[in-house]
Amino acid sequence: MTTKLKPRQRITANVKALMHYRGYERHKDLGARLGWSESKVSRAFNEDKWPLDELDDLAAALRVSAADLLRDPDTYLPGGGDAGRVLAPSVTVE
């Protein structure tokens, strides 16, 4: 049984996996897309604190919706749960 993640932890897990999926290798790669410093991105990851007023921008940089960032990463993302997981909105692996 998987531990239930808090919403902020889900965002962190989803952003981390989506960064990998989208080819962002470092925090500064994502930061460049957002206009954030590398330290701001690192702080968000380390503290699980994502600025809510910039969540739409974060989601857009990763080509998902803000709601997608709150989904259960075990069933939503590559490397998570079952074989029918969703990789991006409307794209499913069977």
From TrEMBL:
Residues covered by the HTH cro/C1-type domain: 28-69
InterPro entries: Cro/C1-type_HTH, Lambda_DNA-bd_dom_sf
Organism: Rhodococcus pyridinivorans
An example Gene Ontology molecular-function term: DNA binding
UniProt superkingdom: Bacteria
Coiled coil (residue ranges): none
Gene3D superfamilies noted in UniProt: lambda repressor-like DNA-binding domains
UniProt-recorded name of the protein: Helix-turn-helix domain-containing protein
Matches recorded under PROSITE patterns: HTH_CROC1
